[in-house]
Design brief:
2 copies of one chain form a homodimer. Chain A has 330 residues and is an alpha/beta fold. Chain A folds into 3 domains: 42 residues, no CATH class; 128 residues, Response regulator (Rossmann fold); 132 residues, 3-Layer(aba) Sandwich (Rossmann fold). Helices cover 44% and strands 14% of the residues of chain A. Chain A is built from 13 helices and 12 strands. Chain A has a 6-stranded parallel beta sheet with strand order 2-1-3-4-5-11, sandwiched between helices. A 4-stranded parallel beta sheet of chain A has the order 7-6-8-9, with helices on both faces. A two-stranded antiparallel sheet of chain A has the order 10-12. The longest helix of chain A has 17 residues. Chain A is elongated and about 85 Å long. Chain A starts with a helix and ends in a 5-residue tail after the last strand. Chains A and B meet through α4, α5, β2, α6 and α11 of A and α4, α5, β2, α6 and α11 of B. β2 of chain A pairs antiparallel with β2 of chain B, so a sheet runs across the interface. Chain A binds a DNA duplex (16 and 16 nucleotides) through α2 and α4.
Chain lengths: 330, 330
DNA sequence: TTGTATGCGTTATCAT
DNA sequence: ATGATAACGCATACAA
């Protein structure tokens, strides 16, 4: 591997000049600049990232924290992040928080150790107060997650709107008894609060009261979905439609509903969230809410790189549009 | 961030001694060792990976090359790799080759630049000859992929056996006309050749001849699966069962078959590969072949770390068992 | 506009 | 058994 010294020798100049060219510094004569560039090309030189890192410079590496990569939503997100990063000559370090606070903090710490230039957080486990301190070591970009009092850029989907149009769609189909699954606790604040708001808003507009029996908290997986359906079956007064919050949960609900002879959407309408590949495969095909994941990943990387380049960070919140995909389950 | 110098000062010893403790060198008195360890703990010290890297040492980072992270098979694989790596204090750099030869070579190059300690390749795009040269810069572990003449360790699933038991299962169900999808070209050599062998072996044992009209090459996605089904529908002499090679393809086949009023498994039996979550969600639930993905990722990381630690590399091939999951589609 | 010298944190060499 | 010192490749303060 050629080093900066080799380039300098070949160009007949000093390391400093080469370094200047490398970093687009002013005060390099055009002739020398060309000379250096030629030498670099000839040698197939590329700067050693470790040395740069040690010197306190860029690492050309960004870290991405996801809860679980096996969740298709996040693997699609990582996919687009990796692709955009690659285009910009960045590497992607991947971290699974496993919804574990300590792990998350460990990963954030890499910013401090200068192992990564910046971090994209696609989920947040700790309180923002614990996380904030790390922003002084490098830029943090929130992607998909959303913290009101956070002073960092965030790209996110309008979860509230997504839920709203989903519920509204059910209402338009004539449903008045609408069940609702959330990944959180259906609290004012906390996980999925935006979605909760969308749900409440749609119901309120239609003059429908919330039935607490039809709220299912802490739901995530296919297995959870099955249990939701079983819970519904025990109810005397059952919802005629259910907003599941994820295609996986929807799949679980559907499988169990069919097992007990319920017709979809006649006996119970089901709406998912994410528009994952399975949505189309389910029987009946799942009505769901599509999120522009690729675009979100793209914006996140571009935003982070912008922060890395500009000293002046502009704290921008980007809301991406969300879309209802109507299939056969509603 | 405390450095080795800080630790040395606190312990009242030299940097060298601290470094010795850090790297488990001999010739350090027990008392001093304890002293150093205490100092490290007190300071919350952890060695700077960039400096180590620059010095030509370990980076505590392994690279994983996958074709596409959105393919559930690979996201599950990455999941298990990341988990085991984390346990062993390794970071995971993720690369998507996108089935692109040049990208793959770019990633391999990181081994040369000492950006990663080792690389796990879960797919191979280039000829082995092009890849082999990189092994001199650091260990490469083949995971899921398989190259006969490669002198590197590999962990893989017995694809041939998996296909064999799948086809045999169809034969036992009374099928004699069995279609077959492959991700490659159904050639003697090349992609999916092991699976092809399993197919041929099972057929041969049952005294069934191969019908070239029922071989579908270059199949990968849900969309491909739909097309396969449509192609089958144009045939006068149709297969009564189809081995799809992936649950996604199976899903596509199924969706299209149902659309045309075919009953599964009566009109056509379908068998998948991977046992992805969708397998259970499909209607009817998909008979498929389960691969011990987690175990494979685990072995790959452990193998790589072993290579990193021992100077002497033992070139081991590990074949993991594979399993038939019978559901309702056959 | 260009070059010299220094230091980032670590480990290896050589001495003691 | 321990320590001083050089070197890894790079970017910057300072000098010219």
């Amino acid at each position: 591997m050629p080093t900066i010294t080799d380039v300098a020798k070949l160009a007949g100049l000093s390391k400093t000049t080469v370094s200047r060219v490398l970093n687009n510094h002013p005060y390099v004569s055009k002739e020398n600049k060309v000379l250096v560039q030629k030498a670099m090309e000839q040698l197939g030189y590329s700067p050693n990232p470790s040395a740069r890192r040690l010197r306190g410079q860029l690492t050309c590496t960004i870290g991405v924290i996801v809860p679980r990569i096996v969740n298709p939503f996040f693997s699609y997100l990582v996919n687009s992040i990796e692709k955009v990063a690659y285009k910009n000559n960045y590497q992607v370090l991947i971290f699974q928080s496993d919804e574990n606070k300590e792990k998350e903090l460990n990963f954030l710490n890499l910013l401090k150790i200068k192992q990564v230039d910046g971090i994209i957080m696609t989920s947040i486990e700790n309180e923002w107060d614990s996380i904030e301190q790390y922003t002084k070591y490098g830029p943090i970009m929130l992607c998909n997650e959303y913290v009101n009092n956070a002073k960092v850029p965030m790209v996110r989907l309008d979860q509230s709107e997504g839920t709203y149009i989903g519920i509204k769609h059910l209402i338009e189909r004539g449903h008045k008894k609408i069940g609702y699954c959330t990944g959180g606790l259906f609290a004012e604040d906390g996980k999925d609060k935006d979605r909760n708001q969308g749900y409440q808003k749609a119901l309120k507009e239609a003059g429908i009261a919330i039935n607490p029996n039809w709220i299912f908290v802490n739901q995530h997986s296919i297995e959870d979905g099955k249990q939701v359906m079983n819970q519904i079956l025990t109810l005397n007064d059952r919802p005629t439609a259910i907003f599941t919050g994820s295609d996986e949960i929807a799949g679980g609900v559907m499988i169990e509903a069919k097992k007990h002879g319920l017709k979809i959407p006649d006996d119970i309408a089901i709406i998912g969230f994410d528009d994952q590949p399975i949505a189309e495969l389910l029987e009946p095909a799942l009505t769901t809410i599509r999120q522009p994941i690729d675009q979100m990943g793209e914006k996140a990387v571009e935003g982070l790189i912008a922060m890395l380049n500009n000293q002046e960070v502009q704290i921008k919140k980007i809301d991406l549009p969300i879309q209802l995909v109507i299939r056969k389950s509603t």
